[in-house]
Design a protein that fits this description.
Strand content: under 5%
Structural class: mainly alpha
Number of helices: 7
CATH topology: 434 Repressor (Amino-terminal Domain)
């Protein structure tokens, strides 16, 4: 690819949210099935996101950004840190494995953060109930 072709390969004025999700997923070398499994959603959910028929909730959006190594801003608007243009970087298998592990850890951290938030809300509600007794 020439620099003209790789520069702006995800033009924010042309691409949709679904285009960016699909492109980043493909650039990460991930199938729809693998992405669905890693995010804990159904395959039809990924397909709906990529076809602009649905949008993920904030927690899944955050996990997706980490998993795909792109910024939330880029996923939502096409601006900010997105995936490398095709053909710009060739990584060795061990580096690719490490990046995959980092993405998995990011996704797990996002899930744990969401779970921690839910538990904290429940705990606060219970403490308020006991305080009012």
């Amino acid at each position: 690819m020439t620099s003209d072709m790789t520069e702006g390969w995800f033009d924010p004025e042309i691409t949709t949210f679904g285009d960016r999700v699909a492109g980043a997923r493909e650039r990460a070398g991930m199938s729809q099935e693998e992405m669905a499994r890693r995010l804990g959603v159904k395959l039809k959910t990924i397909k709906a996101w990529e076809n602009d028929q649905a949008e993920p909730r904030a927690n899944k959006l955050s996990m997706m950004a980490g998993l795909l190594s792109v910024s939330l801003l880029w996923l939502l608007s096409g601006e900010g840190e997105g995936p490398d243009a095709p053909g710009t970087v060739e990584l060795s298998p061990d580096v690719t494995d490490m990046l995959t592990e980092i993405r998995d850890i990011r996704a797990q951290l996002a899930l744990s953060t969401d779970r921690l938030g839910r538990l904290e809300r429940i705990l606060r509600a219970r403490l308020q109930e006991h305080a009012s007794e």
